[in-house]
Amino acid sequence: MSRAAIICAAMGCSEGAVDDESETRASAAASVCQAFGDVPTNEGPVRGVDAAQSCAFLGIPFAAPPLGARRFLAPVPPPHRKQVLQADQFGAACAQLDADGDLLGDEDCLTLNVWAPGGQGKPVLVFLHGGGNVSGSSRQAAYAGQHLARTEQLVVVSGNYRLGPLGYFEYEAVQTPGHFDANNVALSDQLALLEWVEANIAQFGGDPTNITLLGQSAGGRAVCAMLRLGEDVHVPMHRAIISSASCEFESLGVARQFAADIAAQVQCTDKACLDGVSTGDLLQAKPSPPTMTSSSAHNLASPEPDAWRTLRPVPVWFNSNADEVYTTVPELPNEEAYLRLLSSLVGETDASAVRQLYFADAPSPRKALSDALTDARYSCPARSNVELHTRGAPGAKRFRSLLERPLDEAGQHELGSYHGLDLLYAFGTFTEVGYEPTAADRAFSKTLMGFIGNFARSGDPSSAHATWPSQVAPSSEPTTDANAVVLGDESRVAHDPRGEHCAFWDGRSSN
Questions:
Q1: Are the beta carbons of 125 and 156 closer than 8 angstroms?
Q2: Which CATH class is domain 3-333+384-473?
Q3: CA distance 220 to 190
Q4: What is the pLDDT of residue 475?
Q5: Where do the structural domains in the chain lie, given as residue ranges?
Q6: Which of 29, 62, 85, 263 has its Cβ near the most Cβ atoms within 10 Å?
Q7: pTM of the entire structure?
């Protein structure tokens, strides 16, 4: 597979099914799915398919289809069925536009997937995909959970949530008493997924009292939102991993303007009209929504410190990658081109300061710009997330990591640890995306899986490969312990990586 295709798969733009690895293992071990048989759930029995010495249950509905009059509204449980669901195919991706602006997926998309290794009382890991809240799905090849489930003996779950205007829409005509504010129905979908897991996962061998929520990019921001929801909202989450995401949110005013622009574009003034707009027309009206926005009902207020006064006191692991934006930065022939592009992004005044911080030590103008934007948008927000969590949950453990290890293949190695690469290592889905890993690639993947498994089991990722420093502050004052684990072939503890550069970016816009 080409370099671009591998990056695309890791970042979330390819789909795939369960791999064929289980076929070569079937003769050596009894079928895991055969041991499960038909698994009862609250909505009816499901039957899985073997996948790499685990059993995969794919495309299970966790909510009724949000169609017709249910568009823009919070999810409700799916209907009960008596017949066995053959859970051997992924459900549809939630409706979105592809790179050419064409409609992809379907509004009937609220399904989840379970990979179970067998046995009882296993820790549960629930994954929320990224994609800027406008793209992505749980059916993507890079996110298949069978290798992580088998290696770490976890029950791995992934699921879909509504995207774009269908998931993030604030408009007075669609408000329904007793539901979340309409702009956050995607958050309602994610909560419904967690509630389904809590109610049913024991039937798949999982422990409903030990659920770790892992979110990457937009999915990571959703995990931030879960930490901030008020005590009146039940959130079945006992640990959290937030990767490549800022925990800041747009204001309610931004969300309302976004919705008003869409309503004007499709010439609607009430919900009945909006319900009748075609999926494609609605998505094309304004395809880029605000991120998770403020909610008057559930305290997703804007990123002021007071909004973080009280957070769920669960262990949290914050990660970012060292070269998050490298694949999106163009080749820059010289310093003049670098400064011209940099000025367009951060303004002329800041461009001069950024040049002094990054340009001299970088091997190329492209790397210099990538390092600056990675810090501004990912590394420094991850560092700030630790401080925000300290204020809101002072007694809880928190960990921070920085992934530096690239893939070994030459064409991939030069790209560094780009956005989404952490998931390729975490899920071990090299062959699924068409990449032939080296022995060292696989070894590091196994190490990272071990960190994830340990965190899911105990709330501490430490292993024989690295003892992770926990940043626990006795009060709501920000911690002065800024140590983090730098993830690589020889993972190590470093004091405040990127801290000097973050001192510049803190308080500035990362856009």
A1: yes
A2: alpha beta
A3: 12
A4: 44
A5: 3-333+384-473
A6: 62
A7: 0.91
